[in-house]
Amino acid sequence: MDAPKAFTMERLGDTKQVVVAQSTSQMCRTGCCQPSINWLVREADNFHGGNPHQDYPNVAWIHEESTWFQRCGSGCAPGCRSVKYVQHTSNIPDAVADAEDFMWCTCQCDELPKGLSEEDRTKDVIATHEKPQTCGACCCLVPFLETKDANGNLIGKTVYVCDGCIFVPKFDIYNGAGEKKYRLRPDTCIGGCCVMPRCGGGGGKCCRVPYILRNPETFEPVSGNGGTDKAQVTNLWSGFKNELCTQRQAYHLVFPDDATQQEKLTLMGSSILVDVIFYEQRNNDNGGDS
């Protein structure tokens, strides 16, 4: 199969949906065994499991940079750590792909992922998604993720929202000018106090909680995929091996029809923040989300 084309800003502007999938094995990643979590991006609406490096076409990759101390502490509180995700327009380097552990645990003491050279670290960078040290999903020092362009200019921000409905996870998404563009929140029931899961259909898990992108004032869903779907972030079923062994997560992003290139980059960061705050914690608590 031909190598995928670079995922440039121009190409991103024409993209309606992507899958953002973890490529690093999460098996035995507690404490000092916590490796950097790398991601692959592809233009698709589903994830078929197996080895993510062989499930082409991958069109971009994202690598994590965080200290050994921050990764070590994330075993009990992953939503709290300071972390930086660097997004590239090209495919994952072979050296990094070869160093990914698919069956068992790894111990990474360096800041950079295994196999990542200094040249590849800065090559084809399109954006970064950066989070300082915060609390987790609570009302004290709420977590947020800033998305910046290749020159370090702020282009968007995703902020966890704490309000009276504490059992409903939600995020506000801002553009680079600080204007609130979207509310990311699941559907609810019982007067808005509880999350309404979705069961069956599509490529998601049999019982899942899609995060719907909404108008920030009315909270009505915004359309995506040319008006045929709701704009959303949905956790996908990633296959038995990934769910039970390597515990890699995958997310389907449907972009709003009116989203700019910068907002689409910000929304990729939003999907990662959802994972850091909720799914990483669940994996640490019970060995994997199902």
Automatic annotation (TrEMBL):
It holds the Pfam family Scramblase. One of its GO terms (cellular component) is plasma membrane. It comes from the Eukaryota. GO terms for molecular function: phospholipid scramblase activity. InterPro entries: Scramblase. Belongs to the phospholipid scramblase family. This is Phospholipid scramblase.
